[in-house]
Design brief:
Structural class: mainly alpha
Helix content: 55-70%
Distance between the termini: 76 Å
Number of strands: 2
Strand order of the largest sheet: 1-2
Length: 503
């Protein structure tokens, strides 16, 4: 059959066969123009074909994240404004004074590089590597689901051809997701005021930044003097950046927990197949809307819910510390309380782009227990001071847990005991460990009644020998437990604080 005698459907099938087999030669707009009978825009299809040909001819595996960068920068720079000399000078002065105030509110040291004022596009370029790392598990899941759906829906006579198209479909699915992620990040660049606004460490280590254009939008309806608003937000941004710079392990800890959640995401294949059955290539908005609305992500599993709860508690612990330190550092500002409440409300609700991000990757980055965590840090500060409070960020095993947010009393008891060089009071973990060691020593017999009478007698004798003297005996001898029959602990041997509580 001559090429000119083929129907548009046959032309399209031939085109797909050539792509699936890796033959991308000779595909041109004239050939695509024959598909007009299928009501497919040849210009749009030409762009798709160029991308597919690149997938076959290129050596890159996985998602082409340059698509996300181009899309995000396009949106960020559409209405983006440069940073004027006056804005840069005002923010530099705010950062300088904020650094001095923070020196009185925390023992965590200053940043190695000066903070800066940045444009929306510069924020996108600085933060995109972290977005890529967080979103990669979701992109891979969507790409794999597209491959599976294609194999299940293809006719029997096309299965052999489909079997070799895994790389192609992964590239197409990953590219589609990357484009949507770029769209969301670009929109987010129009909302955030600083590098720490989202709560996760997006900026490079040791960097702090404020976006003057978004700062002006944020303060427009607050009726608060710009200099006070700039001082407060600069202090908060510096506190956030200082914390992640000081606790080097914290950045990896947060990102790991986000990835733990993302790795559990699975695409709803039923929703994907239902969408594919009615998908019109000339109307791509439906697929784009499904991705951004979260329609392709099923309900969270129990494991995902648990991972999200852990992440929320971690972010609340971080944000609570930042709140307390910022409040102490900005106590001189007359409008500090009003600004703090506005920031908390904004952080709790999130903007449209942050909500779109939650739909795209199924992840909400809004800590729900920030006020409770701030109250915990305030109680710790009152009990052991600024230095004792900030020392809890020195090592991962010292950081407060979700139980400490619920009841700070146990945390305060541990910290105050450590500050006096004493052993921490026993808690549930200590009791469980003591019981485990006791069972191990008794050969795995937790019930003392199961031991032989002779063993019990020996144990009783050993107990009598090790039992300290009574109060009366102590008064007579001047020292309780002065029996020399067993070794005594040296009272000068102080345990190191880090060794006081098993972890």
């Amino acid at each position: 059959m001559a090429d000119d005698d083929r129907s548009p459907e046959e032309e399209f099938q031939e085109l797909m066969r050539r792509l699936m087999s890796g033959d991308t030669s000779g595909i041109d707009p004239e050939q695509l123009s024959r598909l007009s009978g299928m009501q497919i825009d040849p210009a749009m299809l030409q762009q798709v074909m160029n991308q597919l040909q690149g997938a076959f001819s290129g050596t890159q595996e996985g998602v082409d994240w340059s698509l996300a960068e181009r899309q995000a920068l396009h949106i960020a720079n559409q209405d983006g404004l440069g940073v004027t000399t006056g804005q840069r000078t005002d923010l530099d002065q705010a950062f300088m004074l904020a650094g001095l105030w923070l020196g009185e509110a925390t023992t965590i040291s200053d940043l190695p590089r000066p903070p800066r004022a940045v444009t929306r596009g510069a924020w996108v370029s600085a933060t995109l590597p972290v977005w890529q790392e967080l979103a990669e598990p979701v992109a891979t899941s969507i790409a794999d689901a597209l491959t599976t759906a294609l194999g299940q829906q293809a006719p029997e006579d096309m299965q052999d051809m489909i079997a070799g198209a895994g790389r192609l479909m992964r590239t197409v699915g990953g590219s589609l997701f990357a484009t949507q992620l770029g769209h969301v990040v670009g929109r987010l660049s129009t909302e955030v005021v600083g590098g720490g606004d989202v709560g996760i460490p997006l900026m490079p280590d040791g960097d702090a930044a404020i976006l003057p254009q978004n700062f002006a939008d944020f303060g427009r309806d607050l009726e608060i003097p710009d200099d006070q608003l700039a001082l407060y937000l600069a202090t908060r941004e510096l506190a956030h950046a200082r914390l992640f710079r000081h606790a080097r392990w914290l950045r990896l800890h947060v990102i790991s927990q986000v990835r733990d959640f993302a790795h559990g995401i699975r695409v709803d294949t039923d929703a994907l197949e239902e969408l594919a059955s009615r998908f019109d290539p000339s109307q791509p908005d439906e697929l784009r809307g499904a991705l951004e609305s979260g329609a392709l992500l099923p309900d969270r599993s129990e494991e995902q819910t648990a991972a999200l709860t852990r992440l929320e508690n971690l972010l609340a612990t971080i944000e609570g510390w930042v709140d307390v330190v910022t409040e102490d550092a900005t106590s001189r500002l007359p409008s500090a309380a009003r600004i703090a409440e506005a920031v908390r409300r904004r952080r709790a609700v999130g903007g449209p782009a942050e909500q779109a991000l939650g739909s795209l990757v199924g992840l909400e980055l809004r800590p729900r227990r920030m006020r409770e965590a701030a109250a915990m840090w305030r109680a710790v500060t009152a009990a052991v001071g600024v230095e004792g409070r900030d020392a809890l960020w020195d090592y991962p095993d010292l950081m407060p847990s979700s139980d400490d947010i619920d009841d700070p009393a146990a945390l305060i008891a541990r910290v105050t005991a450590a500050s006096r060089g004493e052993a921490a009071p026993a808690d549930a973990m200590d009791d469980a460990l003591a019981q485990l060691l006791a069972e191990e020593a008794s050969g795995g017999r937790p019930d003392a009644e199961d031991s032989a009478p002779a063993d019990r007698a020996g144990a009783a004798g050993a107990t009598d020998a090790a039992t300290p003297a009574t109060a009366d005996q102590a008064d007579e001898s001047g020292s309780a437990g002065a029996d020399d029959s067993g070794p005594r602990a040296d009272p000068d041997d102080d345990a190191a604080p880090g060794d006081q509580r098993p972890v």
